Amino acid sequence: MLPKRKEFFDLLAAHSERVHAGASALQRLVSSLGVSRQDVAALVEEINMNESSSDKIKADMINLLHKAFVTPLNRDQVYQLTLDIDGIMNTVQDVAMVVSDYGIAEASRASHELAAMTVDACSRLTRALASLNESSRSQETMKLCEEIERIEEKSVAVMYQAIKALFDAEGDEVAAMRALRMQELYARQEKVLRASKKAAQGLEGILLQTA
Amino acid sequence: MEGLNMSIWTLGVLIFVALAFDFMNGFHDGANSISTIVATGALTPKQAVLFAAFFNFAALWIFQLKVAATIGKGTIDPQFVDYYVIFGALMGALAWNIITWYYGIPSSSSHALVGGLVGATVAKAQSGAPIIWEGFGKILAFIIISPLVGFLIGGFLMVLVAWIFKNRSPYQAAGFFKYAQLFAAGAYSLGHGGNDAQKTIGIIWLLMITAGIATKDVATLPMWVVYSCYFAIAWGTYLGGWRIVKTMGTKITKLNSISGSCASMGGAIALGLATGAGIPVSTTHTITGSIIGVGAANDVKAVRWAITANLLVAWVLTIPASGLIAAIAWWIGTKFL
Amino acid sequence: MFSSLMPQRKEFFEMLAAHSEQVVAGANATLRLINNLGDGKTDLAALVKEVNDHEETGDQIKAKVIERLHQSFTTPINRDQIHSLIDDLDMTLNVLQSVANAIGMYNIKQSTVEARELASLSADACMRLNRAVAALADKSRGAETLNLCKEVEEIESKADKVQHRAIAALFQENANVWQTMKMREFYSLQESVLDCCQEAAKMIEEILIENS
């Protein structure tokens, strides 16, 4: 009836580690685009595995929240945070799906940049969640959340430049198809960062409350 | 005196029932103070329960036996008391406690006891003559006064704390309150033990006066009575655990470590004052008043006034209802025992 | 009786109102930008900069609100509600910024009837949002505020219809593929502004319900 405090934090940490692993697989996937089809396929599979493992952790957390009489953090907020973390994982999977659905076989500099930013944001989220257990480290957690939000802002600028390049010189049908594909990819990649920002904001909200 | 004809065995059984009542009291609400401690993770449930039990017992060394005296000789004239009366009183109180427990109403076992005592005595005397209005009137008045005092102190503490920590978020202040709530809960447990254990001491004292073992002089009261009453309430607290706390902590208004500290401390101060003045009050009513005061300070809408109103009805009913049951129990007792 | 003795902290309402004013200013600048697109006389870059500046100011106000939340023991309405509302308002401003910048990003030279319509709907919604936020502190104006929120939601569903109409127009025969691609994205960004407004309006409703 009384789960240890630690269980919640362990689950949150495990969850964010899954997401981090997913983000790093995504980065490798972007690097493999146009290099090796087998690698791309394997990495899509790796992302899907991380996603299902993230789903499982989400289910475990909801289960824990249901049976727990006391929670170390506000119950609704833990729930929302879990949904947010899971949301990041889903957007990562969406990127992988766009890659296969749209037959994307090239990676631009912007795509690399966005993938690297995603890993940056997710690693910060993992660290932020690791320090959540200790209220004495709340400053550190706050700072990490702010950094995630800054990264997201930068990613918007990267996306902007990349999409602008696609549409500036209107060209033939091939160029139009490329613009269609790549814009979707950039937009999806940016969504991962937006989802990370949402989780960071949720975390900020948690730091404002007391149990 | 009729009582003298009764065997020592009957006396023993009645003392045992009184102690069982005391134990139930601890079992019931001795843990009121520790809900927020467990909820915020400051102590594990086991530690918290031990903690509350210890302070319930420690009240023994803090308070004089003034509350016991009010119950034992200040509410009804001991002359009218016999074993049947005590039997009726205990049965009335127990029955009312079980009824309110079943319906989840945090009513006062103290008032049930007083109501039972008065009810059984009046039934026996067939008149209100044995009632000592000075003592009984005080108890009646404090049905209203004690929650009110709890309300005022609890609310005042919350306001005070809000101004002291004005520029810090509750999250940052939580570090301080992790310790403050331990202090407050300890104080509240002292107040609970002090006031409630003494009521049973008072009943047993009354029994002993009836049996001729003790007199109205406190010095004649055997120390083992005092020790066993405090022990019974502490043991009840230990075993009753944190189960019932849920209602108190969550139904009326939500408590966190900060509001929990203020509520416990408010209750502790109000109980300490009453115990020091020798007034048997309801610990339940007092802490409820304090919780409502804290809730009203945080947000008037956070207080579920409808539940509060239900509580008030139960409180007012306690003395007449337990008195009536006690009178019936007394009558049955005289017929069959 | 005790709640009036607690520290009041009315400045949160002021900061929220100040932020929503930036939202309105951003929405109006975006409206002017879209209305004057392609007339050759307006300094479009200056208008985009104006939107960006409002967004910047909004960010600063939001940062201040969060900082103050960390420095306040009591808040006039729930802490997490203040946090959510400022996030929603800030999101609205962010998307407005995206709309303004999308003109350059997609190299859009001409605006359309639908784009102008959507822009004026979002300016309308933001204006109502601003009035609702400004009245948030005044409990006696609860009904009025609630009404404003309802209106924001109505405007949003109107915008939905405009967006559908606009997209249908894009896919008519002889459409230019580049124009279709660009405007489809652009409309969807414009519609997101209204979605954000709706989110904020719902948050205000939640606050009103809990505090009435």
If you had to describe this structure to a student in words, what would you say it looks like?
The complex is a heterotrimer of chains A (211), B (337) and C (212). Chain A is mainly α. Chain A has a single domain (5-210), classed as Phosphate transport system protein phou homolog 2, domain 2 (Methane Monooxygenase Hydroxylase, Chain G, domain 1), CATH 1.20.58. Chain A is 82% helix and 0% strand. The longest helix of chain A has 35 residues, at 173-207. The two termini of chain A are 18 Å apart. In chain A, 46% of the residues are buried. Chain B is mainly α and 337 residues long. Chain B is globular. Residues 244-252 of chain B have low confidence and may be disordered. Chain C contains 6 helices and no strands. In chain C, helix 1 (11-35) packs antiparallel against helix 2 (44-70) and helix 1 runs parallel beside helix 3 (79-105). Chain C is elongated. The model of chain C has no long low-confidence stretch (mean pLDDT 93). Chain A binds chain C through residues 77, 142, 156, 160, 163-164, 167-168, 170, 173, 176, 179-180, 183, 201, 204-205, 207-209, and chain C through 66, 69-70, 79-80, 83-84, 87, 98, 101, 104-107, 177-178, 181-182, 185.
Features:
heterotrimer, A: 211 residues, 6 helices, elongated, B: 337 residues, mainly alpha, 13 helices
Going by helix content, strand content and strand pairing, the class of chain A is mainly alpha
Number of H- or I-type helical stretches of chain C: 6
Give the H and E element order of chain C: HHHHHH
Percent range of helical residues of chain C: over 70%
Chain pair sharing the greatest interface: A-C, 20 and 19 residues
User: What's the mean pLDDT score of chain A?
Assistant: 90
How many strands, which pairing sense, and closed or not: the largest β-sheet of chain A?
none
CATH superfamily of chain A: Phosphate transport system protein phou homolog 2, domain 2
Helix content of chain A: over 70%
CATH class category name of chain A: Mainly Alpha
- Overall, the morphology of chain C is elongated
User: In percent terms, what proportion of residues of chain C is strand?
Assistant: under 5%
Largest sheet of chain C: none
What is the CA-based Rg of chain C, rounded? 19 Å
CATH topology term of chain A: Methane Monooxygenase Hydroxylase, Chain G, domain 1
Give the beta-strand count of chain C: 0
Derived structural class of chain C: mainly alpha
Radius of gyration of chain A: 18 Å
Q: Give the number of domains of chain A.
A: 1
Give the mean pLDDT of chain C. Answer: 93
CATH architecture term of chain A: Up-down Bundle
